[in-house]
Specification:
The protein is of the alpha/beta class and 145 residues long. It contains 3 helices and 8 strands, in the order βαβαβββαβββ.
Length: 145
């Protein structure tokens, strides 16, 4: 039996970064605890002060297949290259020009959501199909592949 995993991002604005990644991954914000219509109502009932209500956010895969993605506020900003990053599989079965066109289309969509394009790496068969390196709104690297 495989272990369940969660991917965690340290960040400055959990709600905003969760919103970005929800759009990228077609995920959704995790529902509040049972009995609450919103996270704000749940946090109010838990006596969480307003200034702490954006300390964390979590996304889930609506299909229940992908890992939970957790965003936690930390005081320091990003200072170095990520040692681990997400590869967003935007064209896993496409090859050549078709693959790169699909990656470019997804890149344009994500730039519109606040991502930054870092660079394009052309296909280099037989081992590499080509990819685009990007950064999310808090400067975390990820790849479209």
């Amino acid at each position: 039996m495989a272990r369940e995993i969660q991917v965690t991002f340290d960040c400055g604005d959990p709600a905003a970064l969760a919103g970005f990644w929800a759009e990228v991954l077609d995920y959704r914000v995790q529902d509040p605890p049972p009995g609450f219509d919103s996270w704000d109502a749940a946090l109010e009932a838990m006596n969480v002060p307003p200034e702490r209500r954006n300390d964390a956010s979590a996304l889930i895969d609506p299909a229940g297949e992908g890992p939970r993605i957790f965003f936690q506020r930390v005081p320091e900003g990003k200072s170095a290259k990520n040692r681990v990053h997400l590869d967003v599989r935007s064209a896993p079965d496409a090859v050549g020009d078709e693959r790169m066109a699909a990656l470019e289309a997804e890149c344009s969509r994500l730039v519109g959501l606040g991502a930054t394009r870092e660079g394009r790496h052309e296909p280099d068969p037989p081992l590499q199909g080509g990819h685009i390196v990007m950064r999310d709104p808090e400067d975390n690297e990820f790849c479209l592949d």
